[in-house]
Amino acid sequence: MSSLKYKIIGLLLFIIIIFVFVWEWGWIISVFFALILIYVLFSKKGGTIFDAIKMFKSEQKELKEEQMEEDKENIIQISLNDFKPKKGAKIAIALSGGVDSATSAYLLKKAGYQLKAFFMVNWDSTINSELNYILTDDEVCQQTKDYIDAKKVADFLGIELIRINFIKQYWDLVFQKFLREIKMGITPNPDIFCNKYIKFKEFTDYIFKNYPEIEYVATGHYAAIKEKNNQFFLAQAIDNFKDQTYFLSEIDQNILSKIYFPLANFKKSEVRKMALKANLPTATKKDSTGICFIGKRNFPDFIANYLKEKEGDIVDQKTNKVLGRHRGVLFYTLGQRKGLNLGGQEYPYFVSKKDIKKNILYVATEKNPEYLYSNYIETENFNLLASLELLKDDVWIKTRHSEIIYEATILDVTKKNDKIKVILKTKEDIKAVTPGQEVVIYKHKLCLGGGQISKNELKI
Q1: 301: which residues sit within 8 A by CB, 6+ positions away?
Q2: Is pLDDT of 213 > 60?
Q3: Which of 292, 304, 364, 453 is catalytic?
């Protein structure tokens, strides 16, 4: 509600009080002002008092429907069980050197599980020719520091820590795919590839092959595994802000029965408190940021190690006016504002389109939302994590990792040669929907899966 409306409401309430208590017949005039107050409160676009009352009834009906849907979701959630490994089971815990995996290991140890810890090495700046980007001492040594921290946690908890190398697998399966797709002009998410191909494929396969006594693999992800009648589902964590199901949406459905997330029912603030109370060595360590297993980097400078720069024009998509120069369209992503060097403009510009063939980077302002927003999304190869029957009607979606979730309607689902194509329309327009990024679908707080966005439009 605007500040002007607040002022009007305050003034009307003041007048009503004055008339009621000061003047004998003030209550009659107060009724008149009360009707005006109702109009101000409930009439959004003008109209009569009856329109305001009609709108109020409509809003009450919507609230009731939302409550019924929420109750339905709660009933479904109650009917599903929180999956928990059997008592005393042998579990492999992935230790990253951070507070989340450390707290996960602590909780498992406290619950009486038999643990063996593993630290994954997936990136080497020298082996992977990271030459153009100047690394600080902290960045070069970060992986070593993380291993030392993981070792401190393992020693503190009295569990064995084993270091395993997936540098080649990460390069072949994650990073090469990442580069190929950037060259195509789309914006892939390496964290999703990392979970799909490394953490919940190469790593889990390695564990179950080389350590047959291990029954489950646990990590410090904020996500949940639900179970009913021996069927397993990926569900959102209790902490909506930290929930990482977006990054887990492409893992194999068959692995859900073999993995466990101890932090599913904890908020990040609670995890910190537990770690501090337990005196874990990484209790005060900052959370890691940046690309999965690579770390924080200046993205354009980092990618310049592997892709050639090719300068070109930055063009206003509405007017076709040349506004500036770019270092290569591959170095930008849709919706990007920083790094365009377009200062002094009346309105801020955002990347709206990339023309690879002509090497033109198109930009637009919020004054032309048709270039920046979408409400129609397609994904050609959707990774299903639940029953196909749930993939219909109204759902919730995420188009990037955040706590923001959008209502959408499934328009069509087709399955051909083991590939699932999903078409959906959102109920509100979404800014910077980006081909190559993931659209992840939710229903009843279950993650139904995800797929890379292959097409997006703004349809009336």
Answers
A1: 132, 133
A2: yes
A3: 292
